[in-house]
Design brief:
CATH topology of the largest domain: Aminopeptidase
Order of helices and strands: HHHEEEEEHEHEEEHEEHEEHEHEEH
Structural class: alpha/beta
Strand content: 15-25%
Helix content: 25-40%
Oligomer: single chain
Number of strands: 16
Number of domains: 2
Shape: elongated
Distance between the termini: 5 Å
CATH class of the largest domain: Alpha Beta
Strand order of the largest sheet: 1-2-6-3-7-15
Number of helices: 10
Length: about 425
């Protein structure tokens, strides 16, 4: 390890207490999405910290994007620091939103409890610990290499958990994730500290509505039950679609192993009159035959699959039922489509992070593909920037679960990797072993 990387190694280690307190501070902002709470104060906290390190800071609202309102503004922070001379730009992007805490916690999910070498809290793993590690990596680099070439950017963006449309997608449309502004992007998602995530499977979300005719519940023969029609859809999916998808496998290194197959998840189903909560219960339900039933599907597909086929096999089942089942009718509404993406292993950013992993852990990285999408999709699709990978601390299986945590040592080791990768990308030099 050369002198620069040895100095970076020491400097990051000296910042252990800082990465812990930074993570705790970030967790204390309950940036729950939906609806998008506390985005602005969290973004401003990140911005103030980076401004102290000499970054020019901008706050950019994802105006008119899903969920954006004066009550819940989609506030993103983008910070940039120019180097002493010309060179490439390296961008670290993290999302600041988290999912709801849910039940089952043994600690306060927004207190940032430190115990047994871990920081507990909603978003520690996914991905405020990664954001903290990237900030510490950059701060350490600035202390060791103050005359660096090129530029460094750090962003904290919103709405990744609900598609990223008010965050990275919005910024990408404004040119924040395209050349010549940015050359390399690292997204510190929790894919384990010795793995490089090259991309993700594809996704197609859609809502299927079966239609019927309302009638009195005591005389269902006078109406047409939309829920029964949806039952026929579900039965056909069970008999035909699920087994067919389970037989398809990919050569992409998707983790975990079960995600190397095509999958479909039935996200939600509702038929008939609206359900009332315990707080607004007004009486017994009225006896009606439901004239509408809606099913939301989440189809994850492989790089070997044609998106037209992905949609077509669902539509074929619906059309066959329409032709063979009396009174069957349906509507299909597409919600979102994202193609699979995979950065090459020999791309500059992947090689740089691999060199960092080898220096820290003494072994080559494992290359993986995420089972679900993340904001790389917008950087590739809208920004047309493909030198992008996900790398960060945290165990993916802990994301969105009760008692979510991140290991402190993992954040420090990942920060070292990111600092080494940053040096290689900015200078173009790989230090001798």
């Amino acid at each position: 390890m050369d002198q620069v990387w040895a100095a970076l190694d020491r400097r990051v280690g000296e910042m252990t207490a800082e990465v812990v307190e930074l993570t705790r501070d970030l967790v204390r902002f309950p940036t729950v999405n939906p609806p998008g709470e506390a985005y602005t104060p969290c973004a401003e906290y990140v911005g103030r910290r980076l401004a102290r390190s000499g970054f020019d800071v901008r706050y950019i609202r994802g105006e008119a994007t899903p969920g954006d309102s004066d009550r819940y503004p989609r506030t993103n922070v983008v910070a940039r620091r120019e180097g002493r001379r010309a060179g490439p730009t390296v961008h670290f992007n993290s999302h600041i939103d988290v999912v709801e805490a849910g039940d089952g916690w043994t600690v306060d999910p927004f207190a940032g409890v430190v115990r047994d070498g871990k920081v507990f809290g909603r978003g520690t793993c996914d991905m405020k610990g990664g954001l903290a590690a990237s900030i510490v990596a950059v701060e350490a680099y600035l202390a060791v290499v103050p005359d660096f070439p090129g530029a460094i950017e750090i962003s904290g963006t919103v709405d990744e958990e609900s598609g990223g449309f008010g965050g990275v997608a919005y910024l990408a449309r404004q040119g924040f994730f395209s050349r010549p502004r940015v050359d390399h992007v690292i997204i510190p998602e929790p894919l384990n500290k010795d793995r490089i995530c090259l991309g993700h499977r594809g996704v197609w979300w859609a809502e299927i509505e079966t239609r019927g005719e309302i009638a009195h519940g005591s005389m269902p023969f006078l109406g047409d039950c939309a829920v029964r029609h949806m039952g026929a859809v579900l039965e056909a999916f069970e008999r035909e679609l699920f087994p067919a998808l389970d037989r398809r496998q990919t050569k992409m290194p998707v983790v975990p192993e079960g995600a190397r197959r095509s999958t479909i998840n039935l996200n939600s189903i509702h038929g008939g009159q609206m359900e009332a909560s315990a707080d607004d219960y007004t009486g017994l339900p009225s006896p009606n035959v439901p004239d509408s039933c809606r099913l939301t599907i989440d189809r994850r597909f492989l790089i070997e699959e044609d998106p037209t086929q992905v949609k077509g096999e669902v539509i074929a089942i619906l059309d066959r039922l329409k032709a063979t089942r009396p009174k069957f009718d349906y509507a299909l509404r597409e919600i979102m489509e994202v193609l699979p993406t995979m950065t090459e292993r020999d791309a500059p950013v992947a090689r740089a992070v691999a060199a960092g992993i080898e220096a820290v852990f003494g072994r080559a990285p494992e290359y993986v593909i995420s089972p679900g999408t993340y904001d790389q999709k917008h950087i590739a699709r809208i920004g047309h920037l493909h030198d992008c990978i996900a790398y960060g601390p945290g165990i993916l299986d802990l994301a969105h679960r009760p008692d979510e945590f991140i290991v402190i040592d993992d954040m420090i080791e990942s920060a070292r990797v990111m600092a080494f990768a940053l040096d290689r990308l900015l200078t173009g030099q790989a230090p001798p072993s």
